[in-house]
Each structure stands twice: as C-alpha cells, then as structure tokens.
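Quick one:
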Amino acid sequence: MSDETNPQSSAPRIGDTRPAPQGDTRPSPAPAGNGGASGQGSNNRNRRRRGGKGRPSGQGQGGQNNPQRRTDAPVEASAPDAAQRNDKSDTNRSSRRRRGGERKTRAQGRYLMCVHTTKDATHIATLEGRSMVEYTVAKAADEVSQIDGNIYVGRIQNVLPGMELAFVDIGIPKNAVLYRADIHRQDEDAETPSPKSDAKIEELIKSGQTIICQVTKNAIGAKGARLTQEVSLPGRFAVLVPNSSTIGISKRLPDGERRRLRRIIDEVKPEKHGIIIRTAAEGVSAEDLARDVTSLAEKWAAIETEVAKSNQPRLIYRDLDLAVRVLREELNDDYRGVIIDDKGLYEKVREYVMAVNPELADRIEYYDRGTEELPLFERYFVHEQLHRALDRKVFLPSGGSLIIERTEALTVVDVNTGKNVGTNNLEETVFRNNLEAAEEVARQLRLRDIGGIIVIDFIDMEIKGNREAVASALRNALSRDKTRTQVFDISELGLVEMTRKRVNEGLLESVSSVCAVCDGRGFVVATGL
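Output:
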C-alpha cells in the first residue's frame, strides 16, 4: 500500500485525540532535486533526532516536509534549491528567526508551555515534544509559603551563635531564617562575587535590629523560609544588586559573548549598584540592556521610599506571578508557544512579553475553555503524564524499570533490568540498561523536582569503561537541568551519590496532602495489637 492511500502515513500531531501509531510510518524526505516517491528511503524512516518524537512534521503526506529538520531552523512550505537559499540576505534570516520560522501556523521550537488555572492554584506544564519535563504549581494568594523573591522589612528576633543563624520576623506567622553565609552572600552566577568577612554572626547583627531582606527559598516542611540580606532585583536581561560593587556575567554564555557584554557593562551599570548579566542577554543590544537596568534602578528607588515610611516588619516588594516569572526566566526561541486558559492571566503575560520580548509575543496564545472540545491539559496529555510522574515505578523503553523512593534524609533510585533480557551477554545488557536509566533518572529528577541528597543504585558493571560511560551519560543528561547538581563517580557497589539543589517542595507535595489515617507512612497497623 502506498503512502498516499495509507491513513497511518501521516505523523501524529500535538493535540491529536487518537493514540500515536506504534511505528514511525512517516514518509522519508525526497532527495534534493528529485521528485522521489514517498515509498523510497525506507531505511531512513526510523531515524529521529533525540527529543523529536511527536514533533509536528508539516502539512503534506508526500514527503515534501522534512520531519528531521532542526527545530531552530526556519521551516518553509517547500524546500528551495541551493541557489535560492544563497540569495537570501542576513537581514531576512534574522527576521525569520525572530518570528520563530516561516510557518504560518505555529512557530517552531523545542518546548511548549501549558498554563492551567484553577480556583486555588496555577498549574504550569512544560512539554518537550509530547513528553512533560517540568510541572510547577503556584498556590493562589499565598502570603505564607509561596513568597520566593519577595522583599521584606524584617526584625531580628534572636541570634544563635552556635548555629550561625538568626530568626527574623518578616510579618508572617512563622519566622524566617537568616544564615551567616547569607549576610554577605556569594552569588553563584557572578564573575566577581562580594568578599566574605570572617566576623561572627553576633558581631554583624543584633536582636531587635531592622533589616531589608529577601526570600531565597520558600518554607519547606518544618523549616522556615530562607533569607538573604543581599537583595537583588531580577530583570529580563540583568540582575540589579543594590548598594553593591558586584559585577558579573552568566557563566553559561560563550567566551566571545562574555567579552562583548563586559564592554557594555561599563555603559549601563548604575552608580552605587552592582549588576549581573543573565544568560538571556545573549545577543541583545546595549540599548535593550540599558533599558532593562534603568527599569530595575527605578524599581529599587521606589522600594527605598517604601522602606523609609516605617520600620515595622512587612512586605515591601512582591515578585511577579509565578507564570510570568517562569517566562522571564525561560522564554526564548526554544519555545514554540505558551498556551494559557485564563483570559486575565493571558493578558498579563502578553503585556509583559510585549514589553521585554516583543518578537516572541505572537507565541503567547489564549485557550478558550468555552469553545474548545477538550480541557487544555487533556488536549496535550498532561493529566496522563502527571499521574505517571507520581508513581514510584517508571518503565524504561527496553523493558527495564526504575523504583523511586523518597525519605526524609534522601531519595533512592533503584535500577532494574525487568523484562530487558538483552541479546549478546550480561555485561552488554546491563550496560545498555544503565545508559537508558541514566537518561530517564535525569528527566524524572527534573520532572518531580526532587532535591537534596540522591543515591542511584545502578546494576553492577564489571568493566570500568562502562561505569565511566554511564556516569558521563548521567552528567550530560543533567546538564539540561537549570537547577544546580553535583554528581560523583560510580562506586564499586554500583552506587552514584549526587545532590540537586532544593528550591521548592517537590511535585508530589505540591499536588497532594498527607493522609490523615496513616500520616503519610502508607500503611495501617493491624488492630488488636
């Protein structure tokens, strides 16, 4: 049967209500300059780029659109010949990139963000292709636990020299914690961090003292919110560090771009304030950077005016809504769209993007619940993937599995071969299974937002080179995670010890509550004992 008459030959699209076909039946692209029947080149049909599963392949079925085309390249209705491509000017290429491609339907990109609002919270799901890689929950009108980034006037309640910390009243029921290291904090993203003093904490702050402080970590469990005395105001391209001499450039930028931005810093840096250039500033002009810094300086001037009114512990600056904050941190050309099902939030987000990144404003879309047949999360299969992300068992493509167990002290991940029996020998089977597990572990840690100490029990491998290859694969997979991680080599017992910075409560805690019967232990003691 030819591809023209085969109903399964078209590629699955994001939002299809029918399940995806089992095999990759998409037609392979025709060779350049050849009319090429779509039935040819079958050996190339199953070749995909990693992360490209489920990517929309275009409109036609006759092989006119190339499903293997890179997502950051402009996609056209038909492939032009080499002479036509060479005739295009650099200006036109830049214009196409700013518009996200030449397709009239949807901009091209690796990620899609779905934002669903409920009465009590805003749920944000980030999809890579069809796979969900991040899920964030922002509680509505939460003045106690969702306060990350807020700036307060605080009053020191008591100082504990033996613990090198102080408890601070910031106007919420539970006191926040200010550690000694956060009085003169060393910024992780800075090129020239602030110098640290050897003075003891009781010499730096006193009980009853009023300070300006900022929340760097929400309260988690019994621990109060974490504070820093070195306040910073993040913008789209830069971070303003008031009353500081800090000058820094993101370490993620290439060396050439860092040198260019270093020359611009002297022009845009305000007096008496430090500045850190963010990763998002790559390629931006000096004018755009100066505009962003000026806006932050004006915002800080308004904060100082508010602080002068009273020394009572209270909130003086609230950070942006989480949905807008996520876009401030993440939105770039890699996102093909941001779909929001709440009209008010959609208008707020679009207004913000129009102000800071107008070339990406057309990627902000409104999903009308009243006219669409399916809810947003059902249309993009978020509900299904969310339930799988809450399960303790994760299946690997080859038949193996992961068991993820969380405790108070650490998280343990056990790797099993399961139904994966291999073909050649035991060492090869175990090696391939561990490589799959390393990739999936990194994805699950990011999706479930697991922080703290993590121990991964890989299946024992006899060959040292195989152990090193698995550890390298894990580090490479974790490099896509914006949260800082530290990974050690595989031990002789096949264990990998690693840490992942804990910023918020995990996915499980954000969408569930502790059982009142078993108190979260997961079992009920037999009666009569």
